[in-house]
């Protein structure tokens, strides 16, 4: 895509990142002052129909095993959120930081279940080059799903749990995205102007495969 094409395609997203119009993402309130810091990378290809990068977490992990997530993890001392997100993406899927252009950050979100305040870093790269897990004890697979797939009304659901939880969900082929990743994806589609009308009353229980603690 040309620079002008990128400007048209990402205008809404870039404006939201610049102006902070995405609003607070903390559905669980404000993080405590001593919260551990983390970052995730929301990586979009610079194409007419951008691809979004996800990982499938390995089954042997102590938390969120088998779930679909954005690359990311805990910050090291002195790191910026962008530095954390890019380092984690390189460690998890071999993404070269030199291929990536950081657009900005969405507001940080407090995630009590993990004890982290998570900053979503939004970035682009030219195209969906092949990536693979660096360490399969941490990452089982790499997914690159198109915005057209994720925004399709038939892919959008309200994910529910027996505990009473409900939130955004995405069902694409055999993959089910829910939790914080789905919340961040939902916000990204909305502020970028990519969201399409969908049936929010369509409730789908989170499949057991993607529900392991």
UniProtKB/TrEMBL annotation:
Cofactor: Mg(2+); Mn(2+)
Cross-referenced Pfam families: NUDIX
SUPFAM superfamilies, sorted: Nudix (SSF55811)
Keyword Manganese in annotation: yes
Record keywords, A-Z: Hydrolase, Magnesium, Manganese, Metal-binding
Record has Membrane as a keyword: no
Highest rank taxon of the organism: Bacteria
Nudix hydrolase domain span: 35-166
PANTHER family: MITOCHONDRIAL COENZYME A DIPHOSPHATASE NUDT8 (PTHR12992:SF11), NUDIX HYDROLASE (PTHR12992)
Similarity comment: family membership: Belongs to the Nudix hydrolase family. PCD1 subfamily.
Name recorded for this polypeptide: CoA pyrophosphatase
Organism: Arachnia rubra
